[in-house]
C-alpha cells in the first residue's frame, strides 16, 4: 500500500471529524436556559409568579398544564392573572424554582436524548412526551 495515500486518507478523515458538530448533552443543555422564576408577595398569604407566561412560552407548554402541576405539587390553589400566576399561600423563591425545574425535568426534557425540543401530547388517557430531536415518544405521569 502506498504510504502517501494512507497519510492523505488519515488527514482527510481528521479534517472531516473537525468539521462535524460536537454531539453531546453539553451542547443541548447550554442552549436551553429557561428564565428564572420571579416572584413577589401580595399581602400575607399570596405569592405572585410574575413571569409565569414567559416561562410557559419558553418551555413550550400550555400555561394551564403548568398551573395544574404547580397547584398540585405545592398543595395550594393557583389562579392565572394577566401573564402571572397567583398562588394562594406564601411560597419562597427556591421552592417555586425547584418545582418549576422538576416540571421541566419530567414534562419537557426528553428521557432518551435529553433534548428540550419536545411536545406534550395526550394519547387516549396517557400523557406522552414526543421529542422533535430524536423522535422518541415517552410516557409521563398524568398531571392531576
Would you spell out the secondary-structure blueprint of this structure?
Layout: H1 3-19, H2 25-31, E1 39-42, E2 46-49, H3 52-58, H4 63-74, E3 78-81, E4 84-87, H5 93-107, E5 118-123, E6 126-131, E7 137-140
Antiparallel strand pairs: 1-2, 2-4, 3-4, 5-6, 6-7
Helix pairs in contact: 4-5
Structure description:
This protein is 40% helix and 22% strand. By secondary structure, it is an alpha+beta fold. It has a single domain, classed as Defensin A-like, CATH 3.30.30.170. It has a 4-stranded antiparallel beta sheet with strand order 1-2-4-3, covered by helices on one side. The chain has a 3-stranded antiparallel beta sheet with strand order 5-6-7, with no helix packed on it. Strand 5 (118-123) and strand 6 (126-131) form a beta hairpin. Helix 4 crosses helix 5. It is elongated and about 80 Å long.
Number of domains: 1
**Strand content bin:** 15-25%
Give start-end ranges of low-pLDDT stretches. 24-29
The CATH topology turns out to be: Defensin A-like
How would you describe the oligomerization state of the chains in this entry?
Answer: single chain
Rg, Å, rounded: 22 Å
Q: Which strand order spans the largest sheet, edge to edge or round the barrel? A: 1-2-4-3
CATH architecture verdict = 2-Layer Sandwich
Summing up helix and strand content along with how strands pair, one would put the structural category as: alpha+beta
Task: Give the topology string: H per helix, E per strand.
Answer: HHEEHHEEHEEE
Number of helices: 5
Major β-sheet, in short?
4 strands, antiparallel
Helix content, binned percent: 40-55%
> Can you count the beta strands?
7
| First-to-last CA distance | 68 Å
**What does the overall shape look like?**
elongated
Amino acid at each position: 500500500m502506498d504510504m502517501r495515500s494512507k497519510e492523505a486518507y488519515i488527514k482527510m478523515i481528521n479534517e472531516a471529524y473537525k468539521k462535524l458538530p460536537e454531539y453531546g448533552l453539553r451542547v443541548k443543555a447550554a442552549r436551553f436556559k429557561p428564565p428564572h422564576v420571579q416572584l413577589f408577595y401580595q399581602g400575607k398569604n399570596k405569592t405572585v409568579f410574575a413571569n409565569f407566561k414567559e416561562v410557559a412560552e419558553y418551555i413550550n407548554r400550555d400555561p394551564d398544564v403548568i398551573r395544574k402541576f404547580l397547584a398540585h405539587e405545592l398543595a395550594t390553589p393557583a389562579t392565572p392573572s394577566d401573564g402571572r400566576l397567583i398562588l394562594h399561600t406564601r411560597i419562597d423563591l427556591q421552592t417555586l424554582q425547584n418545582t418549576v425545574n422538576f416540571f421541566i425535568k419530567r414534562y419537557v426534557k426528553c428521557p432518551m436524548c435529553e433534548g428540550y425540543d419536545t411536545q406534550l401530547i395526550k394519547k387516549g388517557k396517557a400523557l406522552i412526551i414526543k421529542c422533535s430531536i430524536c423522535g422518541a415518544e415517552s410516557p409521563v405521569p398524568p398531571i392531576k
